[in-house]
Request: fold
Amino acid sequence: MTGDKSLAKAVKTLRRHARATGPLRDLHVLLQDLPALCGDDHELLQALQQALESEQASKHGKLSARLVSKRYRDSMDHWLNLVDSRAFRKQVATLRPADIRKAVARRIKGFNRRTARLDDGTPDDDIHRLRKQLKRLRYLMELDSKRWKSDLKSLKARQQLYGRFQDLHVQIELLQSIRDTSPQHPIAGLGRIIDTLEARKADTRHQILALGGLDGAPLRHPVL
Reply:
């Protein structure tokens, strides 16, 4: 919002640490959803839990090692010192509601421009990028939450829809990876679950496309 670049390096490091938690979080979500996906097929549930829990243990070990490393501790100390510094507090003190409004307006314009290009053939990664833009936009609005109280409510609902799409995308990839790892010993019923998730993802995509932009403008390419 201020144009100051002093936070850029620290934020980049913080994002890298945050991304390191993603794979473990995705496994937790899928393991939580598995019982409902497998239904009464207990053999399928057991086989998938065994495969995913093994991967979960590996990812947990790597993340734990990262969190106790000197590099991680040093970067967190640097971050804490930075946000508690006089220079940072001085920058925060210069912020005005007008700065927040300008930043929000700029991000809404960019989000609407990218949303207008969506269609049924849009790659999943493009929708994922829009999800991240929504998250940043929400954080900006929450700096002046009273002004955008009603907008935040609808934004959170939209954010949940985009988040559901990304969860389905990742779950399909995880299950496809299990299927492709041992093609000579296929897990019975796995293809059915992947098909179910694909159908849910397609439905969620259509819901996202139907929303249009944050300004209420429809897509340039109508949903068929």
About this structure: The chain has two domains: 1-95, 96-216. The radius of gyration is 21 Å. The mean pLDDT is 90. Residues 1-95 form one domain.
